[in-house]
Structure formats: structure tokens, C-alpha cells
Design a protein that fits this description.
Length: 425
């Protein structure tokens, strides 16, 4: 069992880490996209996905408490599924998910930057994509040269964005217009179901708490509690924000400004200053999330190479700590930023994340005797997440087939690479 060194973290320190990770770019990038399909019933989608996330958090928490490792999900899958083709495929898919997620969050950064700096609508392909591409390049260089300078301000960024969101939510809830939240403004049941993948994606950041498990005293007891507390806090925040936004903005405005809707919702309450402050919070949050993803990609790739799940050339250094695989990831991110819509990237990211978390449930079921987990809760979590996956996939096949085709392509590539590496070994 790999333990990390350092000062022991308290329960609330781990909770803060999880809340800060979940309340990141997801809510800024996804709230408007959810509203475009679910209407003012967005809160229902966030509630259902929150329950599913709690069940997924149960499996994740139990595995982290039993196998605390810097490898995170890669280690869990190897423990539960064995270091074979299946574990390698899902681990590699998780790496791909981080890459796709980086593109999604960078696109959101570009939309807010375009709206704030160039008064665009955030949906263009000139300044928005240029800002997103520049962000990725700058942060890639920072990660390669020195990540410590960025790490020092992460806690401050989390505190600032949570304070801004909490102030906005409380102010907006005090002036909510009930008529805007009436059932006639709800999307269709099919539309609400289609958004479950996006709202689950807004919770997916709870996995970052895995990195803290090695520094937690009495991890078997503390980490599971931290997971449930953090996800519950975020559920309350997301539900409040959904009611606040859709109770103050008419649906046509939500749909028009779907990629920057939080900033637009702050304008009626606080004037242009509110729009600027919320936009700055979005820029800080999305930049922070891209940085975390890029750092995570380097660490996950290293652990996979150690397990033989990636070719040795993937970790061959090009410059400083930058490896060939990292350079390839950057190329893919930049291509997706400049040639795909935010909604398509988000759809692809949600499918990949859900499948990876289904694999975590499966790994937990097979190691339940070691973790002390309840197989009933594990099965309930698997079935509920599988139901979300099927509903989202069915909706995308009809409305957005391109992300589905790309998802299938990525899964086949990951599986094919693992079969090839197994033969070589």
C-alpha cells in the first residue's frame, strides 16, 4: 500500500479539497447547456445526478480508504480487475477523459473571455478559441517548468469562487420569480434525461480526494465521511444555483447565453459589476481546472507506464518534465478546442467519465471483502449509473451522433492498444 508523506489532513481539510474540485469549471461550463434542454427543471437533473454521485462516491471512498495511492483510479482498477486488458483499457480511457475534459474546460474559459474582453457572444470561433488555445499552451509550459507557483494560489482561488457563488445564490434566491420555475417552463422528460450525463459531470471532481488519502489519519473512517459531506454540500449549492438562475432569467436568455449564463444571471442583480466579477470567477475557475487536468494527465500517464499500460515511448522526455505523450495530448486538446463545439466536447466527456466510474463500481464489487463495502450499495450505484449512461447514450444517438462515434472510436483505440501491449509483453 502506497502511503504519502506529509502533515496529516483533517476531515474538513479533505472536504474542502473535494468541494473546491467539484465546484470548479463544471458549473460555469454546464449550467446553461443543461438549461437549454431541461428548462427550469435543471434542478431535477442536478438532484438525480447528485444521488448517483453519492453512490459512486461510496465506491470511490471505500477503495481510497483501503488502497491509498497516487495512482488513484488506475490503482483501483488494477486491484479490482487485475493488471490485464480490461483494467488497462479503462485506465487509458480515464487518461483520454482527462484530455477531453481539458478541452471542454478550456472552451468554457474562451467563451467567458470572449464575452468579457471582446463583448462577443462566447460562441464564436475566433477570439473564444484563440483565448482557450493560449490558456492551454501557457499552462502546459507552467506544468512542465514549475507547478509549485500555481499550487500556492489554488486555495485562494477556491475560496474566492465559492464566496462569489454563495453571495450570488443568496441574493438571487431572494428575488426569484416563481412563474419562471413553473412546470410549463420544464423541458420534456426526454430532454431532462438527456442532461443527466452533463449534471453528473459537474460532480465528477470528487475523485480528486483520492490524492489526499495517503495523508489522512484514520483514512478508512475519515475519507468516506469526507466524500459524503463534500458531495452533499455541492448538491445543495448546485440546486440553489439552478433555482436562482432559472428563477431570474427567462429561458430564451438562458438559451442565448448558455455558455456564459452564470455571468448573465448576475447582471440583473448587481449590474455590469456583477457580470464582470462572475466572469472573472469563471476565468479563475476554468484556468485552475485546466491546470489540474494537465498536471493529472502527466501523473496518470506515468503510473500507467509503470504498469505497462502505455508504450515506453509515451513517457520518453522531450524537454524538462514534458514527455512525448504529454505533447500528443496537447495537440489533441488544441484540435478539439478549435474544431468542436463545447456541447459536443461535454457530451463526449460525460460518456467517458460515466464509463470509467462504472468500471470503478465493478472493481469495488470484486474487492468488497477487502474494502468492507456493501455489495448491495455497490450494485445500486452501478445500476443507477448504468441507467444514466444508457439514457444519455440513447439521446445522443438521435440528437448528437458525432460524440457517440468518437466515444466508440476512443474505446476501441484504448482496447486495441492494450491488446497490442499484452502481446508484446
Amino acid at each position: 500500500m502506497e502511503q504519502q508523506t506529509g502533515q496529516a489532513l483533517s476531515l474538513w481539510s479533505v472536504v474542502a479539497l473535494g468541494v473546491g474540485s467539484m465546484v470548479g469549471a463544471g458549473i460555469f461550463a454546464l449550467l446553461g447547456l443543461v438549461g437549454a434542454k431541461a428548462g427550469s427543471a435543471a434542478w431535477i437533473s442536478f438532484l438525480v445526478s447528485g444521488v448517483v454521485a453519492l453512490l459512486a462516491g461510496y465506491s470511490y471512498a471505500k477503495l481510497i480508504a483501503t488502497f491509498p495511492s497516487s495512482g488513484g483510479i488506475v490503482e483501483f482498477l488494477a486491484r479490482g480487475l487485475g493488471n490485464g486488458v480490461a483494467a488497462g483499457t479503462f485506465s487509458l480511457l480515464y487518461y483520454v477523459t482527462l484530455v477531453i475534459g481539458s478541452a471542454m474546460v478550456a472552451k468554457a474559459f474562451g467563451a467567458y473571455a470572449d464575452r468579457l474582453l471582446f463583448s462577443g457572444d462566447g460562441q464564436g470561433f475566433v477570439w473564444a478559441d484563440a483565448c482557450a488555445s493560449l490558456l492551454v499552451i501557457v499552462l502546459a509550459v507552467v506544468n512542465v517548468v514549475s507547478v509549485s507557483s500555481v499550487g500556492r494560489i489554488e486555495t485562494l482561488i477556491v475560496a474566492v469562487k465559492l464566496a462569489i457563488l454563495a453571495i450570488f445564490m443568496m441574493a438571487a434566491l431572494s428575488v426569484v420569480k416563481p412563474a419562471l420555475l413553473a412546470p410549463e417552463n420544464y423541458g420534456s422528460p426526454r430532454g431532462i434525461a438527456d442532461t443527466l450525463g452533463l449534471t453528473f459531470l459537474a460532480y465528477a471532481g470528487f475523485g480528486i480526494m483520492a490524492n489526499a488519502a495517503g495523508n489522512v489519519r484514520d483514512a478508512r473512517r475519515t475519507v468516506p465521511r469526507a466524500f459524503f459531506i463534500a458531495i452533499a454540500i455541492v448538491m445543495v449549492l448546485y440546486l440553489g444555483l439552478a433555482v436562482a438562475v432559472f428563477g431570474s432569467l427567462p429561458l430564451p436568455l438562458v438559451e442565448h447565453y448558455k455558455e456564459t449564463v452564470l455571468a448573465e444571471a448576475a447582471r440583473p442583480l448587481f449590474g455590469n459589476a456583477g457580470f464582470v466579477v462572475m466572469s472573472l470567477a469563471a476565468l479563475l475557475s476554468t484556468a485552475s481546472a485546466v491546470n489540474s487536468n494537465l498536471f493529472g494527465e502527466m501523473n496518470v500517464a506515468y503510473h500507467q507506464a509503470q504498469l505497462g499500460q502505455l508504450p515506453e515511448a509515451f513517457n520518453r522526455k522531450l524537454w524538462n518534465t514534458a514527455a512525448q505523450g504529454f505533447a500528443l495530448s496537447l495537440i489533441i486538446i488544441l484540435l478539439m478546442i478549435n474544431f468542436m463545439h463545447l456541447s459536443s466536447i461535454a457530451a463526449l466527456t460525460s460518456l467517458s467519465f460515466i464509463l470509467c466510474y462504472l468500471a470503478v463500481h465493478a472493481a469495488h464489487y470484486r474487492t468488497a471483502r477487502q474494502t468492507g463495502g456493501s455489495r448491495v450499495l455497490i450494485a445500486l450505484g452501478f445500476v443507477s449509473l448504468a441507467a444514466v449512461f444508457v439514457m444519455v447514450l440513447a439521446g445522443m444517438v438521435v440528437s448528437s451522433p458525432v460524440p457517440v462515434i468518437m466515444f466508440g472510436f476512443f474505446v476501441l483505440i484504448c482496447a486495441g492498444l492494450q491488446l497490442l501491449l499484452k502481446r508484446e509483453r
